[in-house]
Specification:
Elements (H helix, E strand, L loop, with lengths): L40 H20 L20 E7 L3 H13 L8 E5 L15 E2 L6 H15 L18 E2 L2 E5 L4 H13 L4 E4 L1 H7 L10 E5 L4 E2 L2 H14 L3 E4 L1 E6 L16 E5 L6 E11 L5 H8 L13 E12 L10 E3 L5 E5 L4 E5 L17 H15 L7 E13 L6 E4 L6 E5 L5 H18 L13 H5 L10
Parallel strand pairs: 1-2, 1-12, 2-9, 5-14, 12-19
Antiparallel strand pairs: 3-8, 4-8, 5-7, 6-7, 10-11, 11-12, 13-16, 13-17, 14-15, 15-16, 18-19
Helix pairs in contact: 2-6, 2-9, 3-9
Length: about 500
Amino acid sequence: MLRGGRALRSLRGPGAGVGPRGRGGAAPGRPLRVAAPRSSDVFRELGPALSRLGQTLREQLPGPGGWDPQWSPQSCPPPEQADVVVVGGGVVGWAVAYWLKALENQQHGMRVLVVERDPTYSRASTVLSVGGIRQQFSLPENIRLSLFSAAFLRNINDYLWVPNEPPVDLQFQPSGYLFLASQRGAATLEAGVKLQRQEGAKVALLSPSQLKAKFPWINTEDVAVASYGLENEGWFDPWSLLNAFRRKAMSLGVLSCVGEAKSFITPTEDEMQLMARDRVKYVNVRLPDSPEQQPVACAIVVVAAGAWSGELLATATASLPGGSLAPLPIQPRKRYVYMWHCPDGPGLECPFLIDTSGAYFRREGIAGNFLGGMSPPEGNEPDTGDLEVDHDFFQEQVWPRLAHRVPPFQTLKVRSSWAGYYDYNTFDQNGVLGRHPQLQNVFVVGGFSGHGLQQAPAAGRAAAELLLHGRCSTMDVGRLAPGRLLHGEPLREAAIV
């Protein structure tokens, strides 16, 4: 279960009418099933036969007419028409696609296409993340999104298990986030905990003496107060979640292709009599290793391109009549992750620790390895043109802070490192979720500034409800709508790691 040291209390799950296969029935609130799919002896006996039948059909049916669980999008060019085009095949894009099919009223009624330009995910924020989930935020919208996602992950096989396939195993490690605050930040942290509890999160406040008693290896000399998540926090494997969403969505009929959305096309002057001008009629998809572009007619476009959402929207709408649109302030921000070995460091009780300085770390496995890093100082952002790692940044900025907080880290040895991207909302560091204020059939889901992975299940559900019903009924996240960008009304999130 998703918990941090105490028994997980039953929560009202995110299912709200969506059951094991995305339609009907079971709500979460039961333990995470990772050992075996829900099956009886009958299904186990049918399994090999169904597998052989599926292989026979794939061999005999012409074209890409079935679901290929290995996902070979290179052999599937974009179709000429789709009801919904999701631009971006990261975890957020696939979550949107999954929920659209899971919530639609008519089975096989909606044609959803996911367009991803990099099937290797070599630069994707999803797979380069450290995989944390928490509810310790300063805004109710972020707390709600992460609580929903925690309940979803706890019962993931009720949603994303594909019949006749192995169960989903996220390799979840339950452990609370531990935020440390100095005297200067104590009031902000305490106010955040009060709000988190009001929203249903289980978070404890610890005095320096309580902190030292629970984690004796922490240097508490400059810590005024700490907050510790008791349930629904920890970390998991990002790739497993992405792949689970993708496999389930494709099993429900979602289409996918490799390509890059290059431009949006609005109606012509003659067509304006039948449809509004401020709508996208086609998405031009450039095929890989080719100058050719395939126009895909669509009713709705979902921009879920992660760190490149702002650039995508600017490029895709540059040729639209009527002047340029207000910019979407989502940009890539490069962040370094370092892995080090310290056999004398914290043991299995190690939380996901966020220091007063902004440095963070968590345990990786059980052999004395740790992952961590820190955001760079304001105004000193690294170049995003590559994924090269700055090792001096660790030596000069990160290590001294870690060694101060955890004295055994004075002897740590760095073993590896990598860099990844935040889809950073420069306006207020919060997610953007809703209809574009100037293009009535374009929806934006992005800008989560480092917590998109953990909030993807909830953000996907919210976006799907907005598309299908015009409102989000599962949780109140209306303030995240893109209109606040146009009106200059920021929502500040204080707990950005």
